[in-house]
């Protein structure tokens, strides 16, 4: 997973808009968008600031594809998997609530 996709997913998990995160880290929204799309790579200082605003360790933003045999990489991938499962569960819960409000079932 690349840094931009990671930022986007974690920002969405925190229910933050691009504009609110960009404002919090003192960059323009188009620049944050370009980071999320993988067109720009932020400085390490900005990575630390993004991580701070997302309330996560900076290392979580730097998870790459790395060596799958590396025990640290394995642990980071487990954490990443847990975050994705949380995002998936939240999306399913949101869809269920929308369907319930509309009088339809989720099936």
Provide tags for this entry:
6 helices, globular, 0% strand, 67% helix, 434 Repressor (Amino-terminal Domain), 107 residues
Fold and architecture overview:
The protein has 107 residues and is mainly α. It has one domain (3-101): lambda repressor-like DNA-binding domains (434 Repressor (Amino-terminal Domain), Orthogonal Bundle). The chain has helices at residues 3-13, 18-24, 29-36, 44-54, 58-61, 71-101. The longest helix has 31 residues, at 71-101. The protein is globular and about 35 Å long. The model has no long low-confidence stretch (mean pLDDT 81).
> Could you say how many structural domains there are in total?
1
- Helix and strand pattern: HHHHHH
CATH topology: 434 Repressor (Amino-terminal Domain)
The largest sheet is: none
CATH class: Mainly Alpha
- The class by helix and strand makeup works out as mainly alpha
Radius of gyration: 16 Å
CATH homologous superfamily caption? lambda repressor-like DNA-binding domains
Helix content: 55-70%
Distance between the termini: 31 Å
Give the uncertain stretches in residue-range form.
Answer: none
Shape category:
globular
Strand content: under 5%
Q: Give the mean pLDDT.
A: 81
Strands, total number: 0
Q: What is the CATH architecture term?
A: Orthogonal Bundle
> How many DSSP H or I helices?
6
